Amino acid sequence: MHTSVEDWDYLLDCPRSGELQLEGERWRFRVHGAGVKFTSAGGVLIDVHRGITRAELIDAWRFMQYLESTTPESNVHLTEAAVDAELRKLEETGLLKRVENEGTYRLVA
How far is CA 29 from the centre of its chain? Predict the structure, then answer.
């Protein structure tokens, strides 16, 4: 996390955009609303708009954006509703646990 940021709810003191290095890879970031969109040099996209301080969480939007950025050759266009339905199925199997009512999940260890 950016060490000078204190307002993790609204990101008002966070730089609006920039770059960072993570495990030897360069990532660009851009703050939007109450979230941050991260893009790797290789085009991988992670758009965090819920639970920004909790990297272990996923939701349909974050997962859909990630999948589309890592499999562009598939020409499959996902919808957030379809991805959310699949996440709910994974919750029913016990692989995921719902953390918040708005559709945020974490892997069950």
Answer: 12
**pLDDT-derived band of residue 9, with 50, 70 and 90 as boundaries?**
low
Name the residue ranges covered by the structural domains of the chain. Answer: 17-107
d(CA 99, CA 108): 11
Per-residue pLDDT tens over the stretch 83-106: 999 999 999 999 999 987 667 999
pLDDT of residue 8: 64
State the CB neighbour count (10 A cutoff) for residue 47.
Answer: 19
> Which of 11, 3, 102, 17 lies closest to 57, judged by CA?
102
Q: Residue 108 in 3-state DSSP?
A: coil
Classify the phi-psi angles of 77: left when phi > 0, otherwise alpha if psi is within -120 to 50, otherwise beta: beta
Pairing of strands 96-100, 35-40: unpaired
